[in-house]
From TrEMBL:
It comes from the Bacteria. GO terms for molecular function: intracellularly cyclic nucleotide-activated monoatomic cation channel activity; protein-containing complex binding. It is found in: Membrane. Residues 123-239 form the Cyclic nucleotide-binding domain. The keyword DNA repair does not apply. This is TIGR04076 family protein. Keywords: Ion channel, Ion transport, Ligand-gated ion channel, Membrane, Transmembrane, Transmembrane helix, Transport. PANTHER family: CYCLIC NUCLEOTIDE-GATED CATION CHANNEL SUBUNIT A (PTHR45638).
Amino acid sequence: MEYRNAVFIVTEEHACPIYNVGDEFVIHDFTLTVERNKEVCLMLVQEVLKALTGTRPLHPRFTQTGVRRTKFECGGCTGLIRFEYKKENAYSTLQMNLLEVAKKRAKKQLIEEFFGLLREMEIFEPLDDFDLQDLALLMKLQKYPANKVIIEAGELGTHFYVVLAGTVAVVREDNKVIAEIGPGDIFGEMSLLSGELTYPSVYSKTVVQLAALKAKDFKHVLSRYPILQIFFYRVLVNRAQKNTMRSGNISSGMSGELTDINSVELFQLINSGGKTGQVQFVFDNCQAVTLFNEGEIVFCGYGELEGKEAVFSLLAKQKGLFTFQ
């Protein structure tokens, strides 16, 4: 029973629905423990049991320093992982204990650096601090220099990102910047939610620091916390609506913010589409309405203003909500 008390690490992964390279699990007196933010796979339990009882063929290999490592394999489902013995569960020297404590302290400090930002985000409000810490443990800190491509259009989405510091730009095929994203904002979720290829591209406008969550962990989080699915569904609908408007289409019931599409662009969409209807605006201190007939403005009222004066005042507004009906 060579491995009755040991730590194993995943060294290879191919389409495994749960584990990533670098994940660890612990064997202690024939009990299997994985990291608290991971589920226990029964297929993995079976493979570990075979390894412990000697019924699973082992694959020895040697490192560059000549240290013998035994590799195990789990491929009982749609995916495959290979894992190997890392170390004994208990540390034999004071130096090893101190090293492990230092590593855990550094990881905890790293999480605490961006935990406060995650806590303030609307998306994570339904999670208590303990659950949010679990989520933070799954995320990896990434840094990019300025003008570096983070997401290339036309590829499968691999990560969900939270911007911790700096600014990233969302860019169309014609190199036009259609949005800038700063600290506390998210991106990368559209492809993961829809299963479609990424679009548009995203690159770092400045030096940026991101918290990245792998696609499989993103799906795990949504499964574990169903309440987050509601928020992401709203995000998916809103983003799809914005993309539709940017493509030159608008239909009854669409709503949004002037920070995403200004009044000039909105009126141009209605005019080019020959739409008939009304746009209602809501601002901090007043409301406005503009009526269209086959794309032409037939009435505009903004507070006490009407006609051209009301239109010109509306075109100058940078913030507010609108609904086209």
